[in-house]
Design goal:
The complex is a heterodimer of chains A (about 260) and B (about 180). Chain A has 8 helices and no strands. With about 260 residues, chain A is mainly α. Chain A has one domain. Chain A is globular. The mean pLDDT of chain A is about 90. Chain B has about 180 residues and is mostly helical. Chain B has a domain of about 110 residues. The N terminus of chain B is likely disordered. The relative contact order of chain B is 0.03. The chains are: A mainly alpha (about 260), B mainly alpha (about 180). Chains A and B meet through helix 2, helix 3, helix 4 and helix 5 of A and helix 1 and helix 2 of B.
Chain lengths: ~260, ~180
């Protein structure tokens, strides 16, 4: 049946769906992702400015919402993971990462936009590289270059004969694997989520409007309902990925600045 | 399809996007680090201070209130004790006064009774004496008239009178009164 269904002319969405044509023909590099990222930063800035514009001991609605978000990152991610001694240094980074990724991701379920810029690998990659630089520099500044790498590569309590295998892996981890997984996790989640929603939405559309078979029409309606369910699931994934990115950043920083990890 | 996938490799970052990512993230980071976080932290510090100040003030007020209460209670206890003492004293004094008054009244009554008795006795005595004389005179006059001779002899006269009076006194008391 699927064969006949495909033969009818349904074209499943491919990678090209994540790369819509440039919105301004004259400016070839200015794509949808770039536009959305710029809007995101603008939206976040406006919101945060509204939250801190007139700080009051008894907060208004905007300030309260801002404080809720800020507290979540500052205490829930920063203080609880990095520790009370030096987490404040990294709170701006964690908060920026969290809001930046979260708002950009939320475009994925925004009606008439439905496009997560983080599905373009450049954005997660840049963020992961920033994180890479931050935690390594923090570790080196805290412990000194030699001790930092020695601490990372030669984990105490491990038998000496394991070091030849373990030391390169650990070095590779902090210099390459961590940023790589950070990038891939965020990128792949957004990319796959976007494709998933597209499959459900285009599939439902096709089965309801293009196919005459009543059974397929019913299946199309079901698919449409599932598209809504999947959108809610995507919303969760989008928020969760922002949290995970900030959380892992905090963990990496914590490992670098807290000795004897 | 295959042509499209070959053209677009999602794992290859676009240079323009890398630049935009760096710039936008940089701007947001600057804004957050320079303006948002300091303002939130300042508000927190002020709030903590306000709350702690309020707590200290409340504690102070509570302590002073407790002290005042204690003082009042002590004063009240004192007053109660004093009142009890005064009441006790009054009761004792009252009882003493009562006893004294009673004694005085009794004495007065006794005195009055005694006086009255003495007076009655004196009056009775004087009445008896005057009656003595009068009855004696009357009786002798009467006897002289009856006998027809004057009892000139005082001695005889006296004896007659005495006998008569003794007779009178020996009569039943109901008649005498």
């Amino acid at each position: 049946m699927i064969g006949s269904f495909l033969a009818d002319g349904y074209i499943p969405p491919g990678a090209e769906e994540v790369f819509p044509p440039e919105i301004f023909g004259q400016v070839p590099w200015f794509d949808k992702a770039i536009l959305l990222v710029i809007i995101s930063v603008f939206v976040i800035s406006v919101f945060l400015w509204a939250a801190v514009r007139r700080p009051a001991l008894v907060p208004g609605r905007m300030q309260f919402t801002g404080e809720l978000l800020y507290n979540f990152v500052r205490n829930g991610i920063g203080r609880d993971i990095i520790g009370s001694k030096d987490y404040m240094t990294f709170v701006p980074l964690l908060f920026t990462l969290f809001t930046y990724i979260m708002v950009n991701n939320l475009w994925g379920v925004t009606p008439f936009v439905s496009f997560p810029p983080m599905a373009h690998i450049a954005f997660p990659m840049v963020l992961a590289l920033i994180v890479l630089v931050v935690y390594n520099v923090a570790g080196i500044r805290r412990q000194g270059l030699g001790r930092y790498f020695k601490d990372v590569m030669f984990i105490p309590g491990v038998p000496a004969f394991v070091y030849p295998i373990l030391a390169p892996i650990e070095l590779l981890t902090i210099l390459f694997i961590r940023p790589f997984t950070l990038t891939l996790r965020l990128f792949a989640n957004m990319f796959a989520g976007h494709m998933l929603l597209l499959v459900f939405v285009t599939g439902a559309e096709y089965m309801i409007f293009e196919v005459s078979n009543p059974a397929l029409k019913a299946a199309g309606l079901l698919t449409g309902v599932l598209a809504i369910v999947m959108s809610l699931f995507e919303l969760f994934v989008e928020l969760f990925q922002a949290y995970i990115f900030a959380l892992l950043t905090a963990l990496y920083i914590s490992g670098a600045v807290n000795e004897g990890h | 399809m295959t042509v499209l996938v070959a053209e677009i490799n999602p794992l290859v970052p676009k240079t323009a996007e890398i630049v935009v990512a760096l710039i936008t993230f940089g701007i947001l980071y600057w804004f957050v680090a320079k303006i948002v976080v300091p303002r939130f932290e300042k508000t927190y510090a002020e709030r903590t201070e306000a709350i702690e100040g309020g707590l200290a003030k409340a504690e102070e007020a509570q302590a002073s209130a407790a002290a005042a209460l204690e003082q009042y209670q002590a004063q009240l206890a004192d007053a109660r004790g004093e009142a009890g003492q005064i009441r006790e004293e009054a009761r004792t004094q009252g009882a003493a006064i009562l006893v004294e008054m009673r004694q005085q009244a009794q004495a007065e009554a006794d005195r009055l009774v005694t006086n009255a008795q003495a007076q009655i006795e004196a009056e009775r005595s004087s009445a008896v004496a005057s009656l003595h004389a009068e009855v004696g005179t009357l009786a002798s006059q009467l006897a002289a008239k009856i006998v027809g001779e004057s009892l000139a002899n005082d001695e005889i006269q006296q004896r007659v009178i005495d006998r008569f009076l003794a007779d009178l006194e020996s009569q039943p008391s109901g008649r005498a009164n």
